[in-house]
Write a structure and sequence with these properties.
Family: Belongs to the inositol monophosphatase superfamily.
Bound molecules: L-MYO-inositol-1-phosphate
CATH architecture of the largest domain: 2-Layer Sandwich
Strand order of the largest sheet: 3-4-5-6-7-8-9
Distance between the termini: 33 Å
Number of strands: 14
EC number: 3.1.3.25
Oligomer: single chain
Helix content: 25-40%
Keywords: Hydrolase, Magnesium, Metal-binding
Cofactor: Mg(2+)
CATH topology of the largest domain: Fructose-1,6-Bisphosphatase, Chain A, domain 1
Largest sheet: 7 strands, mixed
Pfam family, one: Inositol_P
Length: about 260
């Protein structure tokens, strides 16, 4: 997985250096794609499935591949932060390996910064091999919270973002990193104290494991576990103090549970 992500990093950086010349496809309102996304996913598919031909793979740009072994599945976002990418800003490549509903390991790779975040279930979270821990800060005034703004007509919970001003008021800062996977990685290493967004599970599966393995807390906006946030994408990942703060701010957002 690491080798595939590094190779995809090199490939996408080639395009990134000429971001102004990219041809941009529009999948939906505010949802972009470029040749770099597709080439990156194809490369990662080839690398992973030639090594593990019986396993399945779900990526962002193509139909899923169903292997003969129903247990193991790779989740791949070949460029998380496509909008960042096409504007020449930091993006990531993220891959998670799942067995059933359990994420066994995952990575978030930022090719621009050449930072490789990795996590193994029960084995810790790392940045370039160095062990990570979420921020130990409990001071509300120092909290740094990441988020992202969903396309309004695609959002299940548009009301949440009307609270951004109130959420921001007492804390140190709100940041939009522009890649959900990178935002999770930033929580795991303490560059953010927390992150909340309505986002896709394929973008965050590896990042969630990073935060869990770095001692953080992961729930949906109402304090519930994976069976809900994997479907709705209404995610909080944070250190314990920021998690409590965000839960308090978000818990009265009207719920819309998946069928
Ligand atoms: C997107 C992220 C973006 C976040 C979106 C989505 P994509 O992924 O990069 O930061 O706001 O919820 O996760 O479409 O670029 O892979």
């Amino acid at each position: 997985m690491i080798a595939a992500a590094r190779e995809a990093g090199e490939l996408t950086l080639g395009h990134f250096k000429h971001f102004r010349d990219l041809e941009i496809g529009v999948k939906g309102p505010g949802d972009f794609v470029s040749d770099a996304d597709r080439e990156s996913e194809q490369l990662i598919r080839r690398r992973l499935l030639s090594r593990y031909p019986d396993w399945s793979l779900t990526g962002e740009e193509f139909d899923p591949v169903e292997g003969t072994d129903p247990e193991y599945r790779f989740l791949v976002d070949p460029i998380d932060g496509t909008t960042n990418f096409i504007y020449g800003q930091h993006y990531t490549i993220t891959i998670a390996l799942r067995r059933g509903r359990e994420t066994l390991c995952g990575l978030v790779y930022n090719p621009v910064a050449d930072e490789m975040f990795t996590a193994i279930k029960g084995g810790g979270a790392f940045l370039d091999g160095e062990r990570l821990h979420v921020s130990r800060s409990t001071d509300v005034g120092l909290m740094a919270v990441g988020t992202g703004l969903p396309t309004p007509n695609l959002s299940l919970f548009p009301g949440a973002y009307e609270r951004l001003g109130a959420i921001r008021a007492p804390i140190g800062a709100v940041r939009i990193v522009g890649s959900a996977a990178n935002s999770c990685a930033y929580v795991a290493c303490g560059r953010l104290t927390g992150y909340f967004e309505e986002t896709g599970f394929g973008d965050t599966a590896a990042g969630i494991l990073l935060v869990e393995e770095a001692g953080g807390i992961v729930t949906d906006w109402w304090g519930r576990g994976p069976e809900i946030y994997e479907k709705t994408g209404a995610l909080i990942v944070a250190n314990p103090a920021t998690h409590a703060y965000l839960l308090d701010q978000l818990r009265d957002v009207p719920r819309k549970d998946p069928a």
